[in-house]
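hiii so my PI (J.) wants the whole complex modelled not just the main chain, which honestly fair. so below is everything: two entries, each one labled with what it is. i double checked the lines twice but i was tired so who knows lol
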Amino acid sequence: DGGITQSPKYLFRKEGQNVTLSCEQNLNHDAMYWYRQDPGQGLRLIYYSQIVNDFQKGDIAEGYSVSREKKESFPLTVTSAQKNPTAFYLCASSSLLSGGFTDTQYFGPGTRLTVL
Amino acid sequence: GIQVEQSPPDLILQEGANSTLRCNFSDSVNNLQWFHQNPWGQLINLFYIPSGTKQNGRLSATTVATERYSLLYISSSQTTDSGVYFCAVPFTGGGNKLTFGTGTQLKVEL
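here's the output for the full assembly
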């Protein structure tokens, strides 16, 4: 089946630890995104990537890092520098459009991260 | 950057009722997307609608780009329609990024 997978579904972290969230897509999309959602809130962009080996910061990149070594994969690391990491993390992907247009984004099922 | 406001923030319906959700945005846009987030957190894209009207089953959406708003209509609501509805528009400055609205939390009761 084509789609986006995220793992794990639930993740518990002790303070001071780094954790990595996985995101894989088989939609052959060039662009991938990471969002953070806090309870009762909308989505905020953490990082995005339009091509392998290149990525840009979103609105709330501090305390997070990413890599894009393969087109299909865009892992997110939540570092110990992130002061309040407990949240729901969503990965998305889309085709790239030129001319300032944005294509439909498709989302994975999300990872719920809790800091103990 | 562009501001995206949705109303109402919360809505409770009896099953079978109709509803209209609104999305206002502060700047001109070349497309708009509507999403439904189910109670388990999964976001599903409902419509990609830069202008005009589209229909998909019991749902339809209208975007009036010149007046900077979009409407999502839900007819004959069902309990499975419960969740949060978000609209999203391209990020100011482009880059294939989206700015999401504040969301409308919908609960459909029997």
